[in-house]
Design brief:
This protein has 8 helices and 12 strands. The chain is of the alpha/beta class and about 220 residues long. The strands form 3 sheets. The chain has a 5-stranded parallel sheet with strand order 2-1-3-4-5, with helices on both faces. A 4-stranded antiparallel sheet has the order 6-7-8-9, with helices on one face. The protein starts with a strand and ends with a strand.
Length: about 220
């Protein structure tokens, strides 16, 4: 699980963003200013810094400079300033990316995952029971034997693995695979995808132990 340090002085933004990121499988810690952020950076050793420019003490630019001098952690600037100067200034200080408020939560999550992959901070092998997924090779194995999954089945399995232990509603899953397919995916199609995936990853698809049905709620990967 990747850990994100959110440096933002607006309590409502911290609360909302923390809920979104936690729901996407990230661990989140937060700071309102430069001094607290530097303390948490040393103590928590985050995988990524999500950084606003306006802070309680100091500012995002000076914090980014200090971080770059002492730690190897990727930085994404998060700010209401969308002008060209702000973008260039942030990137020249060594930030990996820059996103302006207001933004769509799914876009931010996508940017975060992209930066983590580029910087080698994302976990490359995910496991669940005797299943292993090498996200670099996009290879899935069970007890050392490689499984052949379709692109949609693979995306669906990754979604479950990134939300291990969480109950996912059918609507949440539909939104995820709809984005992946670039086409409409209905409720019946989702049932088919999950059935096919279980046939490939479960010891006994009729009594699934990996992807379990939570009656009346959705599904959960144990």
């Amino acid at each position: 699980m990747a850990k994100i340090l959110l440096v933002e002085d607006d309590a409502s933004i911290v609360e909302n963003l923390s809920a979104v990121l936690t729901g996407e499988g990230f661990a989140v810690c937060s700071a309102g200013g430069q001094k607290e952020a530097l303390m948490l950076l040393e103590r928590e050793n985050p995988d990524l810094l999500l950084l606003d420019i306006s802070l309680e003490d100091g500012n995002g630019y000076s914090l980014c400079s200090e971080v770059r001098a002492t730690a190897d952690v990727p930085v994404i600037f998060l700010t209401a300033s969308g002008d060209e100067f702000s973008v260039v200034a942030g990137l020249e200080l060594g930030a990996e990316d820059y996103i302006s408020k207001p933004f769509r939560p799914r876009e931010l999550v996508s940017r975060i995952r992209s930066v983590l992959r580029r910087c080698g901070k994302s976990q490359s092998v995910l496991e669940a029971g005797d299943l292993k997924v090498d996200t670099v090779r996009a290879a899935v194995t069970r007890r050392g034997e490689e499984l052949i999954l379709s692109a949609m089945e693979y995306r669906l399995l990754l979604f479950f693995l990134n939300h291990k232990g969480m109950v996912l509603t059918r609507n949440q899953i539909l939104q995820e695979i709809w984005d992946a397919a670039g086409e409409f995916v209905n409720d019946n199609t989702l049932t088919v995808y999950i059935k096919r995936l279980r046939e490939k990853i479960e010891e006994d698809p009729q009594n699934p132990k990996v992807i379990k049905t939570v009656r009346g709620l959705g599904y959960k990967l144990e």
